[in-house]
DNA sequence: TATAAAAATAGACGACGTACAATTGGCTCA
DNA sequence: TGAGCCAATTGTACGTCGTCTATTTTTATA
């Protein structure tokens, strides 16, 4: 995979520049006024862009947050994955990875509900390009590695397991958001225990 | 629990009558024109009710479907649960229960995406009354029974396990909806295998 | 019967997202 | 370099969801 996927043609570069510009303006407004209080027309006018352009890049409001989180994730991924390869077992790698994304979730706590709603409502239509949030592919890759190492069952495909893990992760985040005193790492530990060992005795 | 929870006071009876009336009118329109094509004002005028009244009973459009499915489920539950008690293990009870709801899901396939979206977006705010769709409580009860029988782990509470199962169930339904050739029972079997046995070897 | 509480009404309103026709700017190929 | 094609952008009107409020009707209670 290329380290810097810069679009080849100028059109696409310009397209991405305006997308970045819009999302930065939007995020600043969100931080200042709160996500719900900021309107799409407000974002458009603050970014000096027509409403149609805004919707051309971000078909729904939550996509602005999704874009932000995707890019944040993309920048943090390399160092994160590098540290992961030192761990011996798939379980440990997954746990520390989820812990790390949990730290980020802590930062983005205010935006998390809208993001999760967005991610959960996507699968209705069709398979989105790039396989969802990108997390799916990472999970699938880590689980496939575990399968090759004989640590993970091969009765299900890695994609299937990754999808289940993704949903369990989101449900854990929801539970954490709704439960004031709950520590996210504890909730993640519970979730991973269920995912790896099941609930049968 | 009372077999027929008829509201005691006349006000509540009348309230429920109008709710039933509205939801019947709405469902007929959905069947005739399709869910998305029917507008809330259309429902209100067809039911001869003010828009405010409609929203008083059903704060969002999907709630009309949820109400319908809740009542359908409530009518089918007794016979369903009766048949279940003959099965020896918790796993078998859960599987046949999910199969049965799967048959109903087959009937309601057109409405399922909207219903799932609705159910998944609820937990963001706070815990809804009656503990979600009612399914949560049923799952929790069945799992608690399994815990008492020594079949299910007690490392997690029954409520926690029920929540995870609920999410896995919804994700399975989504996968089934998005995958044309997939048999729902096969998808449910996969899900239950993961839920009970986990993915570690 | 008088009064308080709950529900229904009508309609205005703000916001999300869509549609469309017209314009601008970048790309391709001779 | 210039003609022409295609994608992005613009402006604006529109439909729909869901909220809000002031007013009226219905039900419960003293």
What does this protein look like?
The structure is a homodimer of 201-residue chains. Chain A has 201 residues and is mainly α. Chain A has 2 domains: 6-59, Arc Repressor Mutant, subunit A (Orthogonal Bundle); 61-197, Tetracycline Repressor, domain 2, CATH 1.10.357. Chain A has 9 helices and no strands. In chain A, helix 1 (10-33) crosses helix 4 (62-84). Chain A is globular and about 60 Å long. Residues 124-130 of chain A have low confidence and may be disordered. The interface between A and B is large, with 40 and 40 residues. Chain A binds a DNA duplex (30 and 30 nucleotides) through residues 9-11, 14-15, 18, 39-41, 49-53, 55-56, 59-61.
The chain-level mean pLDDT of chain A equals 91
Strand content of chain A: under 5%
Distance between the termini of chain A: 43 Å
- Large-scale geometry of chain A: globular
**Oligomer class:** homodimer
CATH second-level architecture of the largest domain in chain A: Orthogonal Bundle
Helical percentage of chain A: 55-70%
CATH topology label of the largest domain in chain A: Tetracycline Repressor, domain 2
Rg of chain A (C-alpha, Å): 19 Å
Low-pLDDT segments, ≥5 res of chain A: 124-130
Total beta strands of chain A: 0
Q: Main β-sheet of chain A: number of strands, strand sense, barrel status?
A: none
| Class from secondary-structure proportions of chain A | mainly alpha
Number of helical regions of chain A: 9
Q: What is the H level of CATH, i.e. the homologous superfamily of the largest domain in chain A?
A: Tetracycline Repressor, domain 2
Q: What's the helix-strand series of chain A? A: HHHHHHHHH
**Largest interface, C-beta closer than 8 angstroms, per-chain residues:** A-B, 40 and 40 residues
The number of domains of chain A is 2
Please write the CATH class name of the largest domain in chain A: Mainly Alpha
